[in-house]
UniProtKB/TrEMBL annotation:
<protein>
    <recommendedName>
        <fullName>NAD-capped RNA hydrolase NudC</fullName>
        <ecNumber>3.6.1.-</ecNumber>
        <ecNumber>3.6.1.22</ecNumber>
    </recommendedName>
</protein>
<dbReference type="Pfam" id="PF00293">
    <property type="entry name" value="NUDIX"/>
</dbReference>
<comment type="function">
    <text>mRNA decapping enzyme that specifically removes the nicotinamide adenine dinucleotide (NAD) cap from a subset of mRNAs by hydrolyzing the diphosphate linkage to produce nicotinamide mononucleotide (NMN) and 5' monophosphate mRNA. The NAD-cap is present at the 5'-end of some mRNAs and stabilizes RNA against 5'-processing. Has preference for mRNAs with a 5'-end purine. Catalyzes the hydrolysis of a broad range of dinucleotide pyrophosphates.</text>
</comment>
<feature type="binding site">
    <location>
        <position position="82"/>
    </location>
    <ligand>
        <name>substrate</name>
    </ligand>
</feature>
<keyword id="KW-0862">Zinc</keyword>
<feature type="binding site">
    <location>
        <position position="233"/>
    </location>
    <ligand>
        <name>a divalent metal cation 3</name>
    </ligand>
</feature>
<dbReference type="Pfam" id="PF09296">
    <property type="entry name" value="NUDIX-like"/>
</dbReference>
<dbReference type="GO" id="GO:0016787">
    <property type="term" value="F:hydrolase activity"/>
</dbReference>
<dbReference type="InterPro" id="IPR049734">
    <property type="entry name" value="NudC-like_C"/>
</dbReference>
<feature type="binding site">
    <location>
        <position position="172"/>
    </location>
    <ligand>
        <name>a divalent metal cation 1</name>
    </ligand>
</feature>
<keyword id="KW-0460">Magnesium</keyword>
<comment type="subunit">
    <text>Homodimer.</text>
</comment>
<dbReference type="InterPro" id="IPR015376">
    <property type="entry name" value="Znr_NADH_PPase"/>
</dbReference>
<feature type="binding site">
    <location>
        <position position="130"/>
    </location>
    <ligand>
        <name>Zn(2+)</name>
    </ligand>
</feature>
<dbReference type="InterPro" id="IPR050241">
    <property type="entry name" value="NAD-cap_RNA_hydrolase_NudC"/>
</dbReference>
<keyword id="KW-0479">Metal-binding</keyword>
<dbReference type="InterPro" id="IPR015375">
    <property type="entry name" value="NADH_PPase-like_N"/>
</dbReference>
Length: 276
């Protein structure tokens, strides 16, 4: 079965295109969703910062309108990307997740980081270009690891002050320059909860467009140490039995998949599917 959504570098002026409009307030939506005829959107008086052709949805070209600010549009409202991940159609979320990353990149690379001059959009590749410096800037992807640490029937979960109240999740952190994913995992686990791990196994990955992460998911076994929480980063951390778990992350996240996968394996249940 062909994918409904495929990315591509398109001329933003392509005819017959659909479009999504993104502002600092989120994506424009109406009763039918977040995809609109581009020609109609262009007539709504939106404060457009830039446009990028980003791919095809059900065979139709899709253009991103990145806006300076939100405007009132009759019959429409603005909705954040996380709401689409939690509640919306997952195929549409994939479109908007990609659009959010391209929009963030386009907004943050309007000027050359070397000389400060305005950069120009290259239409045949996903890049912004500074001719005096001969410098190309491509969309940023920040690799990070996320890991479920286990000890038999117990799993180590923690919560950040930024989490939804009551929710516990796996440990995660960004890779440093010169660091492998495994080295990042060992360092982050020790920094956040002061325990050691062993038998690290890669499980899978997920694009995480908040704003531009690539989450590399792992499972690791506990190797020693007592939990000591990192100040200002970890609000609480403890071992939970697979038979008695706290509120967990959203079902479409790789954090939840790592947990669900281990619980299924431990309890002899069907292995859950994962759609990253």
């Amino acid at each position: 079965m062909a994918a409904r959504w495929t990315t591509a570098v398109l001329d933003p002026n392509i005819t017959g295109a659909l479009a999504v409009a993104r502002s600092p307030e989120g994506f424009l939506v109406d009763a039918n969703g977040a995809l609109f005829p581009r020609d109609w959107l262009k007539r709504q008086g939106l404060d457009v910062l830039c446009e990028h052709g980003i791919g095809h949805f059900d065979g139709q070209p899709v253009v991103l309108l990145e806006l300076r600010s939100a405007s009132e549009v009759a019959g429409c409202s603005w909705r954040g990307l996380r709401a689409f991940m939690l509640e919306g159609d997952f195929d549409t979320y994939k479109v908007l997740g990609y659009a959010a990353q391209i929009g963030t990149w386009a907004r943050e690379h309007r000027f050359c980081g070397s000389c400060g001059r305005a950069m120009t959009q290259i239409h045949w590749e996903r890049a912004m270009y500074c001719q005096p410096c001969d410098l190309r800037s491509y969309p940023r992807i920040s690799p990070s690891m996320i890991v479920l640490v286990t000890r038999g029937d117990d799993i180590l979960l923690a919560r950040s002050p930024r989490f939804v109240t009551g929710v516990y999740s796996t440990l995660a952190g960004f890779a440093e320059p010169g660091e492998s994913a495994e080295e990042c995992l060992v360092r982050e686990v020790h920094e956040e909860v002061a325990v050691q791990v062993k038998n690290i196994q890669y499980v899978g990955s997920q694009c995480w467009p908040f704003p531009h992460s690539m989450m590399l998911g792992f499972h690791a076994e506990y190797a020693g140490g007592e939990i000591v929480m990192q100040p200002d980063e970890i609000e609480d951390a403890k071992w939970f039995s697979v038979h008695d778990l706290p509120p967990l992350p959203a079902g479409r996240s790789i954090a939840r998949y790592l947990i669900d996968l281990y619980v299924a394996q431990r309890l002899g249940r069907d292995i859950p599917a994962f759609n990253p």
